[in-house]
Amino acid sequence: MNDNEDQGYFLLVLGVLAAILMIVCWWAIQDDGPSLAEELFYAEADPAVESAGEAEAEPTAEAEPTAEAEPTAEAEPEPTAEPEPTPEPTEEPTPEPAEPAAAPDFDGPDTVVDVITANAALSGLLGAVSDAGLSDGLAGDGPFTVLAPSDDALQALAPAIGRRALSPSQAPSTLAYHVLPGTFNATDILAAIEAEGGPIEVATLQGETVIIENIDGDVVINGSSVVTEADQAAGNGVVHTIDNVLLTREVALNAIVALEPIQFDTGSATISADSQATLDQVVAALATSEADVVIEGHTDDEGDQALNQSLSEQRAQAVLDYLVSNGIDSERLSATGFGEDSPIADNETEEGRAENRRIEFRLG
Question: Domains, the chain, ranges and CATH?
Fold first, then answer.
């Protein structure tokens, strides 16, 4: 092809390109959407370039997240920080207790036994306490309140009651009945009675209680024993002198039949009519408690020993039957006989034999 032909061909190509360019411009003016050039560009663009372009562009609200996008609201929430555990309080060492202040020295007898020893009016009690083996106990730490029967009070006991109350088997119980654990001064006792509005009951070392009341300003125990000398202080308690011996329940019950013995017809278990009044006192005494009672029958040594044994059992049973017939629960009562085996007096005299024929009571 010569030069003229080349020139003509070139002009033709330019004309065609100019026409295409005019059409594209007109299309862009008429269409609000992406231009054909844009469509062609994005259609032919390299995917890697397109991805790079999208990575640089800020995502719109409608853009779908890419694989590296942050998790949406449906993703698991970030774990909250664990609270630090509260440290357990450490135990502070317990302070050593302070040494108690030393009690002032007591300027007087060391023990209640010393008080009793120093009081000439209590010599009989001192001997009874020693014979019963209670001296060491009352010389201990205590504190003790001793209701101390005077010598006159001991001598006023009926012989039958005294033998029972201060016998080797009964003396420890009788004497322990005169001791209260703790220190009870007369003023404290009267104040407690006033606060209570009447008599008060206080436990004794023997286990039973005593009733203490204020009668015309006097401290009275069990209705009959008056404090005649109060507040004899010792290092381990206090001693109050009283004018009557206190009798335990068992000794008091036996005192009824000691003062007025139950009589039976000679050689039989039939209760004498004169003794029914005595047994009525026993009924009244038993009605004030629920203690079990053993009724004991005894005889003198005259006659056949086997017959005396049988007679003592029958007489004890006769007393039991009388008590039951007058309202005492039979479940509380039992009867036994000792025959002539437990005398309390000399069987060589009529008076002694009369004392040995007796009914006694033992509380269970």
Answer: 112-247 (2.30.180.10), 250-363 (3.30.1330.60)
